[in-house]
Design brief:
Blueprint: E1 6-10, E2 15-19, E3 24-28, H1 29-34, H2 39-42, E4 60-66, E5 70-75, E6 83-85, H3 86-94, H4 96-110
Antiparallel strand pairs: 1-2, 2-3, 4-5, 5-6
């Protein structure tokens, strides 16, 4: 797969903009973090990725090329082990709405949230 023509890190808006020949995507840092292709998130052979919560405020420190086929994204929470191939970044862009909705549903089912400061305690009357 061909590399994007342009890659722009917007630290203020906490997103990564990718311009391919035929498409453009703006991917939020939180979305990229919770969908990291790392073993930490994907698991070691697990059928379903591990659920990462509390990343609402995560940002991107830096972006580096990994050969001619991918990006290494360094997040401000210290996570830096995912290698995002051009193909995977395109897939994340194309399927953003579906992936994000599925992630939010998984969070809700697990009783977890996006905000790391949100209390997981449920009050009973």
């Amino acid at each position: 797969m061909k590399a994007p023509k342009k890659i722009r890190l917007n630290r203020t808006e906490k997103n990564l903009q990718l311009l391919f020949d035929d498409a453009e995507y703006t991917l939020p840092a939180e979305y990229l973090r919770v969908h990291s292709p790392s073993a930490e998130v994907r698991g070691h052979g697990a059928s379903e990725p591990l659920l990462v919560s509390g990343k609402m405020h995560v940002g991107i420190e830096s972006v580096e090329t990994a050969g001619r086929y991918a990006l290494k994204i360094v997040f401000d929470d210290g996570h830096d082990s995912g290698i995002y191939t051009w193909e995977y970044l395109r897939e994340l862009g194309e399927n953003y709405a579906v992936n994000w909705d599925a992630y939010l549903q998984r969070l809700q089912q697990a009783g977890k949230g996006r905000d790391p400061d949100e209390s997981p305690v449920k009050f009973i009357n």
